[in-house]
């Protein structure tokens, strides 16, 4: 947890946003912006604006969609997608995506690319083609405190994670399983096909087990899928889940946000320089 203080200025900015109706599905998991900026008034800027409009407009009719705003030149072309968690209803999806787009517009102002993962949805845009590309870059991993030896809990944990990682050959971009007090879920971005989604989830779940085995909860976010488990209520707004203190994180992403150059922005309080370091928080 030594890196936590680095985030403080960024978390403060995030918390200062007016968010009167923010629900658990709309709390921040991670966000990042490309370090490249477009110029105000550029064709790229209008591409980003119409992309955001299209994304919000389709979020109440579908849990996933992708868009390509073709500019006059390849450099002016911007791609984007949103992905809602599979258990959200259309209005919760719409609300989550609207919130994410608002925040992206603020935090990634003039950035050529950005990604924001809220609990209930992901919104991502970039100037290069990341659509349909499997990307297993680890963006965030977090584990809760260890539970201590509890054979029953461990068996249940194994079972729910085993269940959601099983491949029955059908396309299941969202998976959920619960056993007693242990719940687990996994979600792919639906630009992945069945095989890629299975592969990505399998990786995420494998890493989740190896990093967070024996913990009360764990989150493993890869670029195109995530897996998590937690002890407590199945209802994300219920007490067990809600008690998990989640701290949003902002990442500085490399040239293209789908590339493996994820860095954490250190806050200014920690020295004059902004230095990146790779993201391996537990
Ligand atoms: C995306 O934008 C950055 C910064 O302007 C540029 O270096 C990069 O080449 C662009 N990528 C594409 C595919 O246009
Ligand atoms: C992007 O959207 C189009 C139109 O909805 C769809 O046909 C296509 O399969 C999507 N591509 C990916 C990679 O999801």
From TrEMBL:
Which InterPro entries does the entry mention?
Cell2Cell_Antifungal, GNK2, GNK2_sf
Show where the Gnk2-homologous domain sits.
26-130, 131-234
The UniProt record lists the keyword Cell membrane: yes
Q: Name one Pfam family in it.
A: Stress-antifung
Signal peptide residues are 1-23
Keywords, comma-separated and alphabetical: Cell junction, Cell membrane, Disulfide bond, Host-virus interaction, Membrane, Repeat, Signal, Transmembrane, Transmembrane helix, Transport
Instruction: Work out whether the entry's keyword set contains Repeat.
Output: yes
What's in the GO CC field?
A: plasma membrane; plasmodesma
Q: How is this protein positioned relative to the membrane?
A: Single-pass type I membrane protein
> Where on the tree of life does the source sit, at the highest rank?
Eukaryota
Where found, per UniProt? Answer: Cell junction, Plasmodesma; Cell membrane
CDD domains according to UniProt: Gnk2-like (cd23509)
Q: Mind telling me which PROSITE patterns this protein's record contains?
A: GNK2
Q: Which GO terms describe its biological process?
A: defense response to bacterium
Q: Family per UniProt?
A: Belongs to the cysteine-rich repeat secretory protein family. Plasmodesmata-located proteins (PDLD) subfamily.
Q: What is this protein called?
A: Gnk2-homologous domain-containing protein
UniProt source species: Trapa natans
